[in-house]
């Protein structure tokens, strides 16, 4: 029997966490139907990630699989089509332990109806929920990437923008959704919840003029 390149207990814990997190995000309306994908680092070379096409409101531990950091599946199953956007973050920064991607109403409308290549959040108290921000007198610029559907090219573009220091906590894909990451799942969920709330507030403010 071939020894697994990751701890079985770490995988089981990650699968439980990811399934529970997915159902929680679904209840907020941020991950409708089979949209979205979530992952958690297992070790220096592997991550647990949602399988492709799974209903996030019904997400179970069996809907989580393992990939290496080149995005190749370990064992049976088809990982999310956007796996490289997760593994690219894990490869570049060993401190990243979790990545969440959602498809919310606010993120979709904001990025489809305003053509800018970024969304700026400024002056919000809730920005302090993000790692490293300790005052509401802060400005967060979230880059918006076009939804090319070429995931390898998009991952390379994201990597270049990270190298240039233009991305800190998150990025958006136009008409698609939000990506954020952190050292562990609790911190990642906290950031995601803050960002989704602020995007919804920003959308309402723009509607009100």
Automatic annotation (TrEMBL):
Domain of life, source organism: Bacteria
Names of the cofactor(s): Zn(2+)
Gene: mtnB
Associated pathway: Amino-acid biosynthesis; L-methionine biosynthesis via salvage pathway; L-methionine from S-methyl-5-thio-alpha-D-ribose 1-phosphate: step 2/6
Annotated positions binding Zn(2+): 101, 103
Protein name: Methylthioribulose-1-phosphate dehydratase
Listed InterPro entries: Aldolase_class_II_sugar_metab (IPR050197), Aldolase_II/adducin_N (IPR001303), Aldolase_II/adducin_N_sf (IPR036409), MethylthioRu-1-P_deHdtase_MtnB (IPR017714)
Cofactor note text: Binds 1 zinc ion per subunit.
Xref: SMART domains: Aldolase_II (SM01007)
Enzyme nomenclature, EC number: 4.2.1.109
Function: Catalyzes the dehydration of methylthioribulose-1-phosphate (MTRu-1-P) into 2,3-diketo-5-methylthiopentyl-1-phosphate (DK-MTP-1-P).
Gene3D superfamilies the UniProt entry points to: Class II aldolase/adducin N-terminal domain (3.40.225.10)
Alphabetic keyword roster: Amino-acid biosynthesis, Lyase, Metal-binding, Methionine biosynthesis, Zinc
Family stated for the protein in its record: Belongs to the aldolase class II family. MtnB subfamily.
EC class name: lyase
Catalytic reactions of this protein: 5-(methylsulfanyl)-D-ribulose 1-phosphate = 5-methylsulfanyl-2,3-dioxopentyl phosphate + H2O
Provenance organism: Alloalcanivorax profundimaris
